[in-house]
Amino acid sequence: MKDKMTPMERAKAIARGETADRLPCNPNVANGVARVYGCKISEFNSNARLIADAQIASYRRFGYDGVRIFTDLFPWAEAMGAKIHFPEDNTADLASPAISDLSQIDNLEAADPYKDGRLPIHIEAMKYLIDELGKEVPCAGGIVGPFTNAFFLLGIEKMSKLIFTNPGVVHRACQVSLETCLRYAQAIIDLGLTPTISEPMSSCTIVSPKHFREFGEPYVKKLVEYINSKGKPVTMHICGKTEKIWEDVVAMGIAGFSVDNVVDLQKCKEQIGDRVKILGHVDPSNVMYAGTPADVREAVVKCVQQAWDSPKGYVIMSGCSLPVETPLRNIEAMMDAAREIGYPIDPEKLDKMI
Q1: For an engineered disulfide with 273, which of 144, 269, 303, 305 has Cβ 3.0 to 4.6 Å away?
Q2: How large is the average pLDDT for residues 51-75?
Q3: Furthest CA-CA distance within the chain
């Protein structure tokens, strides 16, 4: 099946209440773009042109509704001194935090996105991306939010304890992380792209709502407000369970909220869909990675049934980044299901598709 509109045309039509060819759909292919393009993920670490070309190739193949420069969770912490493990052909992981002793906390400095670590490579990749696709599809630059980044500066286990034993150090790490995020967000905006925020450690699966409100929310909110002040809307993703902080997240002023597949999508729509666009939440592992195209089609239909009438809008999306080895046929099945469903949505047609 072929799209009849570009993502830009589709978004504008839906925003105006007009007929479109389908709902927006974004499988969040992530580093799986390397499988589409035919390169190793490790090559992304030093080659901006390759990062952009792989993203462009994946977009051209599947035709989804957003393209983003984002390779892993750690470029910001790395630029501030953390050590990162780089597998030859898989996504990077944290090797050691930026500081090994709390006495070093005042040595942490905000990163310069044009000089430090891999950040300049990502900025250069964004230039290529928007030059190639900017008039056709929304282009974004991903940022790991300041609360999550602070975990990588201090160490995940250590910060989890410091929240209870030394809140001052946690706030210091969050503040310097925020400065890095603000600088990087400005660099994204200067290029004409839109920042998106990933805050996996804000999940209620990781920290309590109380501790999120004390340590995470103040800094993430400042980042959202800064991006909004520059005339850009913010889409945020938080992994895991988030129900207990939905109201807090929406109150920050985000425009879109991407939710994990463990979330009750219909309840999310009913509680906050009048204030924020909902994105989600086809299971990236059990369905997209391990399922069949028929499983994918059924999952997409069920998600649409639950959320298509969300007042501020709905985007079909995977619940998180897809595993690298997700079968390409399943990504195609997700897009084809969106095309088959069409827009406006016909609930009776949805019922017959399952």
Answers
A1: 269
A2: 98
A3: 63
> Residue 130, class by beta-carbon neighbours within 10 Å (0-12 exposed, 13-18 middle, 19+ buried)?
buried
- Please answer whether residues 245 and 204 qualify as being in contact, where contact means their C-beta atoms are separated by less than 8 angstroms: yes
Q: What is the DSSP string of 56-117?
A: HHHHHHH--S-EEE---S-HHHHHTT-EEE--SSS--EEEE-S-SSGGGGGG-----TTTST
Domains along the chain? 7-352 (3.20.20.210)
The DSSP bridge pattern shows strands 277-282 and 67-69 to be unpaired
The pLDDT tens digits for 252-285 are 999 999 999 999 999 999 999 999 999 999 999 9
Tokens of 2: 């072929």
Place of tokens 């891999």: 118
DSSP-derived secondary structure for 232-258: ---EEEE-S--GGGHHHHHHTT-SEEE
What mean pLDDT value characterizes the chain?
97
Neighbours of 4 (CB within 10 A): 11
The pLDDT score that the predictor gives to residue 184 is 98
pTM above 0.90, yes or no: yes
